[in-house]
Structures are given as C-alpha cells and as structure tokens.
Amino acid sequence: MAGAVGRPRKHSPRRRGNTAREEILDASAELFTTRGFATTSTHQIADSVGIRQASLYYHFPSKTEIFLTLLNSTVEPSTRLAASLHDVDAEPTLRLWALTAAESRLLLSTRWNIGRLYQLPVASSEEFAAYHEQRAALAGVFRDLAAAIVGEDDPRVDLPFHIALSVIEMRANDGVIPEELSQDHLPALAIMLADAALAVLGAPLPEQREQRTLALLAEVAKES
C-alpha cells in the first residue's frame, strides 16, 4: 500500500506514540537517559520500536538529530511562554512564578526524564549550539525577571532558573509520567518550586498565581 514504504515493522507496535516518529522518540528517550548517548545505537533504537534500522532513517537522518529533537522539547514550550510573557500586563513576580512553574511542569510531563540529557557530555558538542543559544536565552529571561524584582546586581538573580531545573533531580526515570499536563491544575511540585523561586528573592507570592498561570498557558497553547 502507498504510504507503508519507509516504515515496515518487524513486530507489532511496542512503544507509546501515535506515529512511528513519536515511538522512536520514546525509545530513544529511554535509551539515552538510561544507557547514555555514545553507547546507544540506531540499531538498538529501531529494535526497541520494532522497526527496521533503515526505516528509522526515514524519520530521522541521524542519532544526533533524534537527540537534538529531544533536547529542544525540553526548552521550546518555555521559550514560547517567555516570549508571550513579555507582552503580558502583569507584575514581574507573577511572570517569574508562571515561567518557573511552567518549566517544572514541562519536565514532569514526560515518561522519561529527558531533562537529564543536558547533563550528558555529548550535549556540549558544537552540533547542539542552536539548542544552547535557546537555553541561554531562556535563562536570560529568568534572570531579567528576577532582576526586575531584586535588582541586576543582586547575586540571587540566577537562582530561579536553577530552581526550576531542580525538578530533574526530583523525579524518577521509570517510564511513568509523574504529572500529565492538565488545563485545570499545576503539579504540586511545580507550585512548590515556583514558590521557592520567589522565596529565594524575598518576593511576595502573587494572588491567584495558579489560576492566572493556567490562563497564560492556555493562551500560549492556542497560539501554537
């Protein structure tokens, strides 16, 4: 049949995902976070999905491209939110709280702890320079919002970004999603870390912070 070429399966689907591409990303996320990048081969990824190795290249030209796609998925949604927050008529405390909660929420919404990928030696390669630029820009937004609260010369301005990312060390990597994305509530851990990001700056917590953040996330989702 037309359309079947490029994705012949050796076995029935064994991975989470609505498409072969999503299944490949799921398998790769597990292998990269449990075995590392260098010791994971495209043959192992294909076998884990249940497709032929040649079929994997129909969806991704290289193992590096798979890794980059996973890396980008940890930062792109928060980057879009950061851009939207720039035009929001809200106090810096709410914008910083929302960004911290959203980043933590994102890192809690995946089966595998893909935030760990940044810690792998390969992530520092020049091949991932564009990702590093995007990550640095996101860190800059965190810093600017913190500086708007405590001043640019305050040594605490870099702490909120690291507090948001601390969720990586606080979640498991067992193939179970800690917190599904919800339009109705934020994960308790994300709320705790967002509160901590303001507490470290000695800033008051915004009123209705969870509800207002959920509204912002809904608006960003509409624009995506």
UniProtKB/TrEMBL annotation:
Signal peptide: none annotated. GO terms for molecular function: DNA-binding transcription factor activity; transcription cis-regulatory region binding. It comes from the Bacteria. Residues 18-78 form the HTH tetR-type domain. InterPro entries: Homeodomain-like_sf, HTH-type_TetR-like_transc_reg, HTH_TetR. PROSITE patterns: HTH_TETR_2. Keywords: DNA-binding, Transcription, Transcription regulation. Residues 1-20 are annotated as: Disordered. Residues 7-18 have a biased composition (Basic residues). Residues 41-60 bind DNA. This is HTH-type transcriptional repressor KstR2. The gene is kstR2.
